[in-house]
Structures are given as C-alpha cells and as structure tokens.
Amino acid sequence: VIGLGNSTQNCTNLLWTQDGNYILYPSNAIVVQMHVETQQQLFFIGHSDKVSAIAFNGNSSLLATIQAGPDGILRLWKFETRRCICVVRVPGACNLHALDFGIRNLSDSSSSLIVVGHGEQPQQSRTIVCVYNTLNAH
C-alpha cells in the first residue's frame, strides 16, 4: 500500500473522481489511484521525476500530470484505461508546479489545459505559462 506523503511533506495534491469512487494522489514519480471503499490501488507509471501536480478535466475522463525537476514533462492519461496518450516536453520550462483544466461545469469538459513552471535558465527568474488544447485527445 502506497500512502499519502511522508514525514517531511504534507499531501496537498489529492483528487476525487467525479463519481466519488476513487481518490488520486502523487507518490514520488507515480500517481496512485485508490478505490475509496476497497482501498485497492492502481498506478499511473511513466514519469522520471517527482510528480508535482495532477488535475482532472470536468468529467474525470482525462488526467493531466506534471513533474518537478529539470525536465518539464506533462503527461495526459485516459483515466479509464490508465493509458498515457500524450507526453509533452513543455518548451523552455523546468520545475513544473501547477496545472488545471480551464473553467468548466460538471457536465462539460474543458479542452484548455494550463501548465505553470519556471524558466530553464537559472539566472533568469521567469515564470512559464503554457495553454494546451486537449479537445482531440484520445
């Protein structure tokens, strides 16, 4: 059983599925999907560094994950199959910190995905914001 966080960090990145059956949370380089009643765990595996943020689209069909560290990697997953459908190296970014799908309501699913990180050059203190269109993500 992989638990939430560890002694030096709090779990600040916890998601519930829209139907309330599962919670999801990052644990180092993987994302854990745990059934609330049975506590059965399934995993989203593919990152090479600590997963720093996760987000669902409005109907919980797509899961977006980003990782910390020098490679600004975004992954998009089909939630139902836990299959990674897209891997993006966020241009000019490292240490990705936040992401979310655009404004939506519960019956709609936004096609905008916003990712925030820092610039690659240490001497430049700049924030990178990228917006991706996930409308045709399969």
TrEMBL record:
Ranges occupied by WD repeats: 44-87
Keywords, comma-separated and alphabetical: Repeat, WD repeat
Listed Gene3D superfamilies: YVTN repeat-like/Quinoprotein amine dehydrogenase
Secreted recorded as keyword: no
InterPro entries: WD40/YVTN_repeat-like_dom_sf, WD40_repeat_dom_sf, WD40_rpt, WD_repeat_EMAP
Entry protein name: Uncharacterized protein
Annotated organism of origin: Adineta steineri
